[in-house]
């Protein structure tokens, strides 16, 4: 499911100053600074604000510029991104409470928080040097009493950007076909209860949708060690200055993330929400198919980038293949023993609520002609039933799991459901390849022995894709004897029927995986030597046999160049305990 993030507008940064100013006033009170002091806040990303600005403070009644001898506090704020908390800002996980969520169509909008290190430098200016000394000593006393750590709570507003408002309206347009209601009703029923309107006092008609949020358990620390011993004197203004540093951590919203399915109520989302996904995937596949270039030094060696790309892309392409490219379907296993190699995002015919797609209309990719011929020859009746074929066509609909033979494939290759389908969630046809042939029904093997071309077609997909499903195969724990017995039965049948061409093709395909061909060759050589000779006569099987006999004769342990400590002890004990003959 795609996620798109948009940065919060500058207005949101100014609203956040409300929370920061609340923290500043808390610290000023704790330091014992008189309440009639003018407070000014400076943020490197914002303009300076005095204490009588909107949403700032109500301590002082005058809004005059700071005079030379007037007591004042200037709080300078700097923010640094905390890299230690980078894993807590993963936008693919909607950990933060959403500000808008429609569970019916699985659409949500949630803020993305970034942990920031906030450093506030309080520069206290006063005409009285004694007053500043009292404030400094008060801070030191707080440290000795363990009260240099302060706790804060504050509220702020997140103004919803215009692009998010447009996104919610687009979702509404798709959904209201089946659930008619006004846009206002739709928004109110799915938005958080803290949503409200904010207006500009200078222009009441300029209202914006905002969400009220709270910051709780904010902890800050007074850095007493950085406070200078001597009070700084400004002879030009005849005032004294004291600088007090303060540190705290805050999770501040930096973006709003929109998470949505690619299809809502049987209609595809507007292209502006999908184009970036398809463009990225097309570039990835172009990179995969591009010929490798050599480094320009002329030494014939691959550059680091080329070598890395060769390892990442050339060896294997991660499955499944999602079509169309803008779809994001990470499911890799639908049924135990099968691996999903391709998924087709499709809409449901709203007239009959059953028709899904035609297997000849799957551009830009298409099924192999031989596979289509296999389906038309009768395999289409088996591939829609799990464990009755080496391939399986399944149905997947978000929120609904279909684990039985729910599909039919007509002679014209139309794929339909046997039951009426819902039109709310996205629907996909999945094509799977059997990863564990030992789990198939007993009727499959005899049918494949009569149609060995289809078996070879599956074997090619199996060998090429086996490493793509290493994790799934490790969970299956297929015993080697059961798996290879399945393959040996096909070779044995081919030997009896003198199908020499099948034997050659079988070994050629199997040799694409060095480990598997070595295991197969070793098992045949050790357990079925006659079958091994018959297969090797019509193929290159002998090239792949590796002697796996590592058993040592402990009676003649001295003949081995390398031996374990245990072997040495056994041999030594035999020499001392057994009489020589």
Structural class by secondary-structure content: alpha+beta
DSSP helix fraction:
25-40%
Tally of helical segments: 15
Total beta strands: 21
Strand content: 25-35%
CA-based gyration radius: 36 Å
Largest sheet: 11 strands, mixed
Q: Termini, distance in Å?
A: 78 Å
Poorly predicted runs:
45-66, 292-316, 548-563, 566-576
Describe the structure.
By secondary structure, the chain is α+β, with helices and mostly antiparallel strands. Helices cover 32% and strands 26% of the residues. The chain contains 15 helices and 21 strands. The strands form four sheets. Strands 1, 2, 3, 4, 5, 6, 7, 8, 9, 10 and 11 form an eleven-stranded mixed sheet that branches. β12 and β13 form a beta hairpin. The longest helix is centred in the N-terminal third of the chain and has 21 residues, at 10-30. Mean pLDDT is 80; it is low at 45-66, 292-316, 548-563 and 566-576.
Any key phrases for this structure?
26% strand; 5-stranded mixed beta sheet; 581 residues; alpha+beta; 15 helices; 11-stranded mixed beta sheet
């Amino acid at each position: 499911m795609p996620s798109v993030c948009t940065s919060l507008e500058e207005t949101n940064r100014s609203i956040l100053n409300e929370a920061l100013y609340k923290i500043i006033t808390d610290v000023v009170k704790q330091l014992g600074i008189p309440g009639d002091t003018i407070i000014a806040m400076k943020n490197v990303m914002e303009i300076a604000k005095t204490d009588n600005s909107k949403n700032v403070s109500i301590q002082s009644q005058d809004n005059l510029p700071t005079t030379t001898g007037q007591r004042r506090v200037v709080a300078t704020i700097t923010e640094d991104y905390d890299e230690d908390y980078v894993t807590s800002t993963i936008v693919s996980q909607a950990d933060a409470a959403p500000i808008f969520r429609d569970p019916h169509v699985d659409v949500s909008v949630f803020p993305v928080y970034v942990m920031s290190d906030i450093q506030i430098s309080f520069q206290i200016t006063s005409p009285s040097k004694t007053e500043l000394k009292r404030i400094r000593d008060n801070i030191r006393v707080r440290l000795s009493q363990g009260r240099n750590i302060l706790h804060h709570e504050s509220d702020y507003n997140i103004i919803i950007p215009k692009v998010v408002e447009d996104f919610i309206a687009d979702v509404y347009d798709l959904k209201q076909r089946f659930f008619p209601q006004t846009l206002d009703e739709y928004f109110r029923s799915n938005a958080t209860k803290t949503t409200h309107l904010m207006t500009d006092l200078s222009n009441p008609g300029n209202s914006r949708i905002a969400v009220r949020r709270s910051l709780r358990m904010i902890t800050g620390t007074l850095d007493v060690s950085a406070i200078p011993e001597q009070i700084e004197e400004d002879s030009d203004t005849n005032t004294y200055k004291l600088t007090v540093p303060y540190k705290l951590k805050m999770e501040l919203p930096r973006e709003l993330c929109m998470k949505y399915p690619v299809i809502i109520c049987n209609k595809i989302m507007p292209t502006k929400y999908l184009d970036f996904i398809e463009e990225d995937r097309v570039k990835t596949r172009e990179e995969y198919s591009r010929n490798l270039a050599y480094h320009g030094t002329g030494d014939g060696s691959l550059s680091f980038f080329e070598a890395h790309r060769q390892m990442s892309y050339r060896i294997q392409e991660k499955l499944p293949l999602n079509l169309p490219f803008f779809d994001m379907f990470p499911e890799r296993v639908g049924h135990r023993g099968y691996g999903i190699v391709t998924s087709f995002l499709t809409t449901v015919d709203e007239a009959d609520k059953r028709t899904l797609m035609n297997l000849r209309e799957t551009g830009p990719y298409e099924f192999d002609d031989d596979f289509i011929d296999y389906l038309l020859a009768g395999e289409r009746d088996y591939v829609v039933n799990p464990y009755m074929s080496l391939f399986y066509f399944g149905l997947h609909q978000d929120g609904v799991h279909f684990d039985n033979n729910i599909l039919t494939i007509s002679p014209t290759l139309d794929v339909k459901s046997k039951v009426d389908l819902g039109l709310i969630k996205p629907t996909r046809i999945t094509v799977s390849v059997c990863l564990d042939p030992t789990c198939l029904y007993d009727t499959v093997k005899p049918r494949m022995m009569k149609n060995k071309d289809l078996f070879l077609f599956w074997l090619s997909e199996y060998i090429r894709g086996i490493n793509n499903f290493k994790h799934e195969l490790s969970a299956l724990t297929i015993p080697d004897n059961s798996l290879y017995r399945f393959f040996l039965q096909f070779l044995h049948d081919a030997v009896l029927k003198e199908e020499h061409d099948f034997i050659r093709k079988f070994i050629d395909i199997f040799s694409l995986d060095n480990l598997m061909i070595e295991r197969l060759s070793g098992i045949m050589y050790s357990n079925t030597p006659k079958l091994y000779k018959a297969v090797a006569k019509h193929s290159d099987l002998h090239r792949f046999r590796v002697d796996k006999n590592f058993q040592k004769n402990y009676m003649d342990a001295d003949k081995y160049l390398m031996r374990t400590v245990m072997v040495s002890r056994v041999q030594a004990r035999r020499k001392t305990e057994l009489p020589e003959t």
